Amino acid sequence: MPAIDTSGTFTLGDRAVKRLGYGAMQLAGPGVFGPPKDRDAALAVLREAVASGVNHIDTSDFYGPHVTNQLIREALAPYPDDLVIVTKIGARRGKDGSWLPAVSPEELTQAVHDNLRNLHLDVLDVVNLRAMFAAHGPVEGSIEAPLTALAELQRKGLVRHIGLSNVTPTQIAEGRRIARIVCVQNHYNLAHRTDDGLIDDLARDGIAYVPFFPLGGFHPLQSATLSGVAARLGATPMQVALAWLLRRASNLLLIPGTSSVVHLRENLTATQLHLPDHELAVLDGIAASTENAATIDSGPKPA
Question: Is the peptide bond before 78 cis (omega within 30 degrees of 0)?
């Protein structure tokens, strides 16, 4: 049995996907802008992911822009029947690589067509609307107008399912009054557990939660604690962080990213890492430790 099969599955839209997927953001150039340093290596990572059993890939046409989708198309098309490609709209890139809101009906329509063209698809499996009221972290504000525009594109047959990204519980509730929401994608990990209650609420309703930045936002003490657990278990900090997320709730779908085949293989074996109860207790204490300390690796770009 491939290592990834032990992660289990969860329903994403109308498809069962393995709970350990792959995020393509890191395949673009520095700052998620421009082409990769090594195009062949980027293609190899994508092919290795699918060959290893990954059937959930997260991407966006604003990664690059256009770069990751074009890489996915080159590496994987024609796509395996079980592969679910999830993309995001709601942002665009400035000429300087900045991240800018793009939520007018015209911009959202263009974004959907850009994703379709660059992925070489007739319909997008899942499209996440990314709220852009702030660059980092959810901020309250109505998503009715852009989500209504995305729902109209769904009615036209260009989008199968709709998700939300970088959103608050209030925005999710608003969104669910407009369209069926199949997933929520927010920053969540051992050190950043604001969405604990939300995850449990979504699980009860059968909605997937997709955490990004599994190592983002750790302050030095938290990083040292995680590294200590990893050393005792003979694992990498990323493997431990992913194993903890897989244990946290059955509706979590993970999308760790990397541009290295070696690191990809390491990440996929996290499904087989056993976390003893005493180490789980240490990990569960990370979020509570030195909460007001300055953070590092806080994810300086939208996911």
Answer: yes
Tens of pLDDT along the chain (303 residues)?
Answer: 778 999 999 999 999 999 999 999 999 999 999 999 999 999 999 999 999 999 999 999 999 999 999 999 999 999 999 999 999 999 999 999 999 999 999 999 999 999 999 999 999 999 999 999 987 899 999 999 999 999 999 999 999 999 999 999 999 999 999 999 999 999 999 999 999 999 999 999 999 999 999 999 899 999 999 999 999 999 999 999 999 999 999 999 999 999 999 999 999 999 999 999 999 999 999 998 745 444 444 444 677
pTM for this predicted structure = 0.95
Domains annotated on the chain, with CATH: 9-215+250-257 (3.20.20.100)
Question: Is-catalytic flag, 63?
Answer: yes
Q: Which is the catalytic residue, given 22, 63, 79, 209?
A: 63
In this structure, are residues 190 and 244 in contact, taking their beta carbons and an 8 Å threshold? yes
H or E segment to which residue 73 belongs: helix 67-76
Side chain identity at residue 261, one-letter code? V
Q: Which two three-digit tokens encode residue 10?
A: 């969860």
